[in-house]
């Protein structure tokens, strides 16, 4: 695909680098979004999750600098979910290691964002390129939902949204939730926001826990990480450091390696035919005391998204690594 036909994307993410207890997949997703020749990364917007969004902006800026793409804007987004609060477990995490910089040096905050709120950046960018922009949402969907509420015109102006989130239970071992027995963390962090996005009428693609797990082979193992030549480029060094931090202190101990949840969403944005997909009607539980944030298939309802239901994870991982290190 030539540069003229690259898919324009905004990456909405919660990246953390060098911080114990945070996932490696968000910064790797940024690297892939920058390096995949089929994509044109218009900007990065940050959201609460792995770390607070202002710290996430500093991390994203450092990743972009390592990739030689400091020209890509970074906009800081919401620090709370739509109701104005933050889950208690994140409050506790931010009071500890996940609320401050880790082992990788970061730029100062004033040098790490474009001084425009992520919600406004999304609105302005989508309306400037009607029908062309795909949002790749790999964190809580608060920024996107608030953009839709503030400017409903973006729903018709968006090309599509590809999101990493949700769990439908197709995979008995891994597909039933990673924050509660039934809810995946990105959706659980702000179910109200996900509900708005799911009902928006935008072309949606779901990449959930049923495919982003070790059973599909979507794992970057320790050995390939150890084999990365950190002297090859600043991006290779960053890649290796990010993975090493996760391997030393993983958020989820699902495998002996990094599960590439979020990079798969970027890969699907670059190649919409990657994997197997099923048209489905999916809703979000916003009220349940025990089921809050659960993504629920609905019978006798028109489909509102296509759901990734199968991938060759090993091939995807190999492609992601080779693309980033090319």
TrEMBL record:
GO terms for cellular component: cytosol. One of its GO terms (biological process) is purine nucleoside catabolic process. It holds the Pfam family IU_nuc_hydro. Keywords: Glycosidase, Hydrolase. Residues 9-317 form the Inosine/uridine-preferring nucleoside hydrolase domain. SUPFAM superfamilies: Nucleoside hydrolase. GO terms for molecular function: purine nucleosidase activity. This is Nucleoside hydrolase. It comes from Winslowiella arboricola.
